[in-house]
Amino acid sequence: MNARSPLVIALGLLATLGVMAHVGIDDAPMLTSELIFPLEHWHNHASMIVEAPNGDLLVCWYHGSGERTEDDVVIRGARLGKRTGKWSEPFLMADTPGYPDTNPTMFIDPRQRLWLLWPTILANEWETALMKYKVSSDYQREGPPRWETSEVLHVTPGDEFKTTVDRELDTLSGTVVMDDRRKESIAELRKNAGNKLARRLGWMTRAHPYVLDGRRLIVPLYSDLFSFSLMAITDDWGATWKTSTPLVGFGNIQPSLVKKKDGTLVAYMRDNGPAPKRLHVSESRDRGETWSTDRDSSLPNPGAGAEVIALANGHWVLVYNDLENGRYSLAASLSEDEGATWPWTRHLERDSPSPQAASAEQVQQNRGEYHYPSIIQARDGSLQVTYSYFIPPAQVQKDAQGRQIRKAIKHAHFNEAWIRARS
């Protein structure tokens, strides 16, 4: 094999980026979608998608009888072969026998290794989550990856964690009505922040990790005990880890990261707090080490995961439930000004509004759940999204054992031009 000069490699990369920079604007609008596997009675949720160097798409999700309370929950995966154009049968990615394995995420590092990160739930409560990860160099073939590394990601916030929590809670307390319930909640947060075990356990993944400048890996984490977020950071690919300051708020969880052209990192987070229900936002100007005070954005959120990416041309795409209540509408929105405005929106899923005369029960029976999206931009410039797909209860059929056949993971393939075309 003849080695290519750095100049040739650089020119090739620039050419590729140049092609990707206009993909989605000049192209014809395009959208295709399909279930990765048929609807099941099993709980299938929280998918994550990556594109392998050979062009295969690899997706993972958690699968089992339920969520944290069910000890049969495992991480499964499937592959869309570049050569075959078909999804494989699902295969096992990770399993801790006797424990629920949930909320997986994946990414491919600059050395083209595949990482799988996920929390194992030690005592059937989210607050007992223990972060783990695996790494593979052998994953571009049929079947599951062959893992070379399997480690615990020890999340170890120091004493500055409590200092930051106390300071941010002092700031945020002036922005909410301080009734007795709120006062008790804040007191509990302060107490837990000072407890070494409480601040080390319970952190979980959701959105893609972020590789900054090809050298720093930032893993966005969140805690249901604290109901806010944190970043795990490594500058040596897992040999050592440290944590950012916490992103303190009242229900800002499951952060998804995107970078502005000036280097500022922006975290968009699910709203797990009181009304008004909005995606939360925080920013870092020091490579993820410290974060600004949490604030509401203008984007609605019903308490469901969202993910944002920056495209090769600098535009941003956000996939999210564009509602304050319910998960029956899944949108893709486009911004040309780094999130200041989102003038274009199309819907990957949206159940029609029910007639006004319908009862609340009838409305719910005719609404599905389309949620927890994962998005990447493929090397050809197109957008690849996967998400949990739960059909409306009114459409559910039962198998011979009386179990509801309702849940799967869905894959959508579209381009920027499709978002701009509107519906």
Low-pLDDT segments: 1-24
Shape: globular
Overall SS class: mainly beta
- Helix content, binned percent: 10-25%
Record the SSE blueprint:
Blueprint: H1 6-22, E1 31-35, E2 43-51, E3 57-64, E4 74-80, E5 91-94, E6 105-108, E7 114-121, E8 129-136, E9 149-152, H2 160-173, H3 180-193, H4 196-200, E10 203-204, E11 210-212, E12 216-223, E13 228-234, E14 242-243, E15 252-259, E16 265-271, E17 278-284, E18 295-300, E19 307-310, E20 316-321, E21 329-335, E22 344-350, H5 360-365, E23 369-377, E24 383-390, E25 397-398, E26 404-405, E27 407-414, H6 416-421
Antiparallel strand pairs: 1-27, 2-3, 3-4, 4-5, 6-7, 7-8, 8-9, 10-12, 11-12, 12-13, 13-14, 15-16, 16-17, 17-18, 19-20, 20-21, 21-22, 23-24, 24-27, 25-26
Could you describe the 3D structure shown?
Helix content is 15%, strand content 38%. By secondary structure, it is mainly beta. It folds into 3 domains: 97 residues; 143 residues, 6 Propeller (Neuraminidase); 122 residues, no CATH class. Strands 10, 11, 12, 13 and 14 form a 5-stranded antiparallel sheet that branches. The relative contact order is 0.14. The N terminus is likely disordered.
